[in-house]
Amino acid sequence: MTWGSYYYCAICGGPFGGCNFQTGSERCSFQATEEDETVQDGFNRGYDQNIIQHVEVLWTEIMLILGLKRDETACIVGPAFLEHGSGSSGVELDADEDGRYRTLRSHGKFYTYINSNGFDYAWKPLFPFHWPCYKLLARALTETNSNVPVATTTNQIDKHVLFIVMERKINTASKCLNLDYGLAATSQDYCWRSIPGYELLVAPFDETPSTSTLLRTTCTISPDALHFPAVKGDLTAKVKSDPFQKLPNEIIGIILGFPIDIVSVLNLCRASWSVRCVLQDNDLFWKGRIRIDLPCFFELHQLMAEDPELLRGKNVKGLLLALHEMTRPMKGMTGPFMGLANRRRVWSVCEQIAALYWDVARES
Q1: Which InterPro entries does UniProt cross-reference here (predicted)?
Q2: Residue 336 has what DSSP assignment?
Q3: Which of 43, 63, 181, 256 could be bridged to 13 by S-S, CB 3.0 to 4.6 A?
Q4: 8 A C-beta contact, residue 231 and residue 280
């Protein structure tokens, strides 16, 4: 086994390679305690190769680095590779023919997540990340700002603004940012812990034709078979009190137009039979909720835009709830939806960064 990454992606909180693997027969129970999830000699037990293969995690080995050039302008360099086993937060970049990698402001080594405050010499920190994570962040910057008319590309990200955001979120451990990385926090130790049951943390989540095919196929499956059947029967006569029953549908629509999550919408449906009746077969509403509650399912959004017949006659509400549940990032997850679950996890971090990004951009 090898030591895992000593510091983590600023965007997803995941490792830069160094993942360990074991065979399925060696896999331990998911019921193990937190203390049991690392073997006695300090190494990681390893991911189950029946769930994820080494070739599928190669994307984690290549990093890009955000830093400052000598003229104090922010830039991104790479690809760079971490030399595992050094136990250091420094990384050395080989210069290209133009010496481009050597233009980063530093003192000797390049240090990730470490500022020079209190030292006799000055350097600025570097922030490493994966390319797929950076692309997802670009999409999040568009989705979280209604004033951005077209999709943000990686070339359009203001690197200086992003540097300020990340510098403000440096944590004391100097291994990642002070953000909520979800399940990844379980594996972030002295080095990355390849804990069985958490394979989804390194599952590839980039947009691919296979993901589009998976989602199209899912749209053809009856939500009844996915355990989210449509509600049948009329309980109006049994309702004793429902304040929403007195409201026009237009007012209910305004209430549902507020930024509330899917759990709140479902709770409202449970609390009010009249609201449930208004929404139950309202495919237009539930199609809109797909974009709201599954904002990073870009392939599904494109399928819906290109094929208006895709969801015609389907239980759209049931489909939304099924996809929402099947891609919920959780321990022990396996199967074809692992990549989408990891994308949802990383997207939640991107939303945190995006909110800070636009705050800093408005300050400039």
Answers
A1: F-box-like_dom_sf
A2: T
A3: 181
A4: yes
Instruction: Put the strands of the sheet holding 62-68 in their side by side order.
Output: 74-81, 62-68, 127-129
Q: How far is CA 250 from CA 193, 242, 275, 360, in A?
A: 52, 17, 11, 38
> How many whole angstroms separate alpha carbon 174 and alpha carbon 188?
12
Length in residues, the chain? 364
Q: What is the pLDDT along the chain (364 residues), one digit of tens a residue?
A: 445 567 899 999 999 888 889 864 454 433 333 444 444 333 457 999 999 999 999 999 888 888 877 666 777 766 554 444 333 444 445 444 444 444 444 444 456 776 555 444 445 788 889 999 999 999 999 876 656 555 567 888 999 999 999 999 988 777 899 999 999 999 998 889 999 999 999 999 998 899 999 999 988 876 566 555 555 555 555 566 777 777 887 888 888 888 788 888 888 888 888 788 888 878 889 999 999 999 999 999 999 999 988 988 888 888 998 999 999 999 999 999 999 999 999 999 999 999 999 999 998 7
For the CA atoms of the chain, what is the radius of gyration? 23
CB of 67 closer than 8 Å to CB of 105: yes
Rounded to whole angstroms, the Cα distance separating 132 from 59 reads: 8
Q: Model-level pTM?
A: 0.82
Measure the CA–CA gap between 349 and 118, rounded to whole angstroms: 30
Structure tokens at 64: 């890009």
Q: DSSP H helical segments within the chain, as ranges?
A: 131-143, 159-168, 209-220, 249-256, 262-271, 273-280, 283-293, 298-306, 316-326, 338-363
